[in-house]
Predict the structure.
Amino acid sequence: MDVIVSAFCQNLAPPFCDLDAITDYYLHYRRLMAHWEKVLPIKIYHLDYETTVADPRSTTRGLLHHCGLQWDENCMSHHENKRAVHTPSKWQVRQPIYSSSVGKWRRFATHLESVAERISGACT
């Protein structure tokens, strides 16, 4: 739900400017990932945003290990990198990991009831 709210709040192009379209996109994404998990011979690494925010060091180490990459302490100071960023989240890239977006969707829960029902129904 937080991802859907985040995409909607970014004022992006379709389908991300319409809650129903974002929900459709998310449900298609879930189906596609389920397909790839069944047919690919590799294990897909799932990264949970809430866990990443709560324990970024361990989560980052786990991701790097899965990818066969060595730990680099610079991973914990990504926000200090001076390279250009050209994404809608460019201001977030320059911030340390923060937790204020976790559960943000709950502020809009009344408006997101139909979205929550669709996701819940599709994921059961």
